[in-house]
């Protein structure tokens, strides 16, 4: 039986038919207690979902769907190391990476917790050495710049958080992130750096990723050309690898003592809590990094134990399913009212769309309903002058997540209050619109949104926030019956790129290349344009 034929789903369909005609103005007018009944505070994080197009009955019916789909049991399997990544027969233990517990947690009969704590201790020792200038480059000068070479999960999380926590960064260390294989990403960074004081962190789970390894080889050549006879010292002092494939890293030339390993039960887009976060830890210090882990661990405990209707990530997941599957809203706008969090929508795009952008269950059965939303967004208040016009008057149903902080991370007189007023005003305008006499100025409203308010932008609260979104994605996957931990569509593109590369690198078109007429024509055009004058 598909999910759409289940009893709980059918009950929600009947309820949705009545709710679709309701306007948020009417829902608020009918219930003066709507805000306290449709909001939740967890460890200082306030989640207000009263501006969503739902009511208490909707929440009860959604909770019944989660119970019918046995989401809590699935969550427990994830936390205890069961192979919830069924297609690859692996556990998904990103939660263990931020655990402070010493209680054994076994995967294939092996307790993973001692290794996690030992890895964290190694990260602390290395961060302390670099930040205190004890760790120096081949010339004996202290490290001043760190370049993280990675892509996807080895880039987006650490990059986002390094920018978000810029108020906490070391005053004498600059951390750069290079992900794109396009030379325009790496070349300007290298041009601005001194090879004697630059440390490269190569982050790749497989250590075979085309983009990352291409950038790493170029960076290695740049460094060694400056090191001259000190090339061994340069590799020993200025190249670090973070990988689950130690053999490939050693083959590249990374010394064994410079390897930080993590396991295949850590998915790339869930890996920032592992040594993949080393560049972030170098930027903010290991104490702040461990506060990030503590915030995530606090959200883990809440998600694992709280009842469904008082469970913040579970409510986020269920509201998303309500909007996508019952109201027909297939987009989600993310608007952090924090310039420091400007990369959060990019990070959440991968987390949500790569995890849940699937239409089949693990056994190959069609899900039968839409899954992941098209997620996009940007930092407020810039977004108000970009795409909010579409939200207000474009006629499309597009839910929004607003994220804001009571205190600013960079306090300047009168700035933060104006920022917050814009955030609250946009959520109000989207919900209630206006009834202007001029139809061109009228806004229909009834655009749903949730508001996440946090006390301040610090490592602990960011740990809470990111973990909440992780758990939202996983809970939705459990309800839809899909595997959020594989990404075979991404793998297909990689395979095709590897097949086409020799034909593009060649000085002449490859007549034997088996491909479609369009791709063959494009390659032929490229060859014609790249011929010497």
UniProtKB/TrEMBL annotation:
NCBIfam families: PRK00179.1
A GO term from the CC aspect: cytosol
Pathway: Carbohydrate biosynthesis; gluconeogenesis; Carbohydrate degradation; glycolysis; D-glyceraldehyde 3-phosphate and glycerone phosphate from D-glucose: step 2/4
Isomerase listed as a keyword: yes
PROSITE patterns listed in its UniProt record: P_GLUCOSE_ISOMERASE_1 (PS00765), P_GLUCOSE_ISOMERASE_2 (PS00174), P_GLUCOSE_ISOMERASE_3 (PS51463)
Subcellular location: Cytoplasm
Taxonomy of the source species: Bacteria, Pseudomonadati, Pseudomonadota, Betaproteobacteria, Candidatus Proximibacter
Predominant cellular place of this UniProt entry's protein: cytoplasm
Protein known as: Glucose-6-phosphate isomerase
Classification via Gene3D superfamilies: 1.10.1390.10, Glucose-6-phosphate isomerase like protein, domain 1 (3.40.50.10490)
Keyword set, alphabetical order: Cytoplasm, Gluconeogenesis, Glycolysis, Isomerase
Enzyme class: isomerase
Residues forming the catalytic site: 354 (proton donor), 385, 494
Described purpose of this protein according to its UniProt entry: Catalyzes the reversible isomerization of glucose-6-phosphate to fructose-6-phosphate.
UniProt family annotation: Belongs to the GPI family.
Reaction(s) the record says it catalyses: alpha-D-glucose 6-phosphate = beta-D-fructose 6-phosphate
Lineage: superkingdom: Bacteria
Gene Ontology terms, MF aspect: carbohydrate derivative binding; glucose-6-phosphate isomerase activity; monosaccharide binding
GO biological processes: gluconeogenesis; glucose 6-phosphate metabolic process; glycolytic process
EC number, as in UniProt: 5.3.1.9
